[in-house]
Amino acid sequence: MRIRSVIVRAVLVVLLIGGGAVVMNRLAALRKPPPQAETVERRLRVEALRVDPLTVRTLLTGFGQARADRRVELIPQVAGRIIEVHPDLDVGRYIDRDETLFRIDPRDYEAAVEQARAALDSLDAQKARLAQARENDQRRIEIARRTLELARRDFERFRQLVEVDRVESPARMDQAETAMNQAREQVVALENALALYPAQLRDLDAQLQSARARLEQARLDLERTRVTAPFTGRVDRKSIEIGQLVGPSMANAVTLVDDASLEIPVPLEGGEVARWLDVQALPDQPTWFSRLEGRPVVIRWTEQPDRVQWAGRLDRIERFDPQTRTVHVVARVTRPLDGQSPAPSDFPLVEGMFCQVEIPGREVAGVYRLPRSAVGPDGNVLIVNDSRIHSRAVHIARYEGDTVLIDDGLQPGQIVLTTQPGIVLDGTLVDVDLVDPQTLWDDAAASPGAPVPAPPIERDERPRELEVTAP
Length: 471
Fold this sequence. Notes:
5 helices, eleven-stranded antiparallel beta sheet, conserved putative lor/sdh protein from methanococcus maripaludis s2 fold, five-stranded mixed beta sheet, disordered C terminus
């Protein structure tokens, strides 16, 4: 009885489970499938540029501080007290050429001139007296020689009368001999005096030369009591006042600067100079650079680069810095400016201004010009082909401010994105807004930048995800 009860219960359980399964199948058959959404690929809107090869003149840009071509530190060359100062002798004011900057009390130096002149006059008179004495002695020696000749004849005559004819006393012969000896002594004395005159005259000439030099030095010292401006210039420093004692040991009394001729030394990377500027060795001096072609340059004040600017010209290569490996070229600016474009600013260029100098370099042909934002961190650009983005490796010939010059990796007519968007995969579908190249470069020119050569980029040729910002 118990076994039958168990069997019945088992059969009932099986029937219940089977019936539930049948009901579930019927209910599942009655359920409608959910509607399927249609998959549509999303398009990104991007700006792009159709590129064509160009011939472009490169532009080297560097920075430097304007300095005056002429700067003079005026130091007193004589000692004394300042008695006069130019009324405009103040820092920042201009003083014309040959105007007196300051004067030192000249009285001591005027007295020195008079003293030197008197000493010179005394020596001149002494020389005149010596010359007259020489002339007189030359006349006297002629008389003395004639007297000696007469005395010798008298002596010979008396000796003949005494020794041969024996008609005259020996005393008369002795008197004649004494007279002859006295005449001979006078001749010898005059000859000795005449022989000393050349040495005495040379000594006087040397004294006269020294006296003239002392007079000239005294006059020069007197002139140096008046210090004048060697050129029209600006007073950059002043350290003197009326009544101040000054002297040659003074470090610097007045500093005058010629702002009419300014120059700017600009350090440029040596490799950039060698590649983009026409610089060669001198034919007769291969150890230095030849003169730079005096091509025009644009100079901008870094505080207002788009408004305050001047024109200039390359002048020379000043030096090579082995520590920074830079070549220092010098751009010269002179007033008045020579009408180069852009027009000179009314704001003056003065010494000490930190400026940006734009130097045109060699022309390069067959390059593609793109905004700098078109190049990704890996050095690749994004091109559009069949409305899809593709990464393309390129070779960048040069960075110039907000633009780059590409000489390999692109083809004429290709469409290149002007900016690198957010993160998407290669092959993303896009809608392209083509940008007018002229408008793009005009906008770049209206915002002058600082072109700085970029280091070479090692490109990664592996597949990558692209960063594209969805609209």
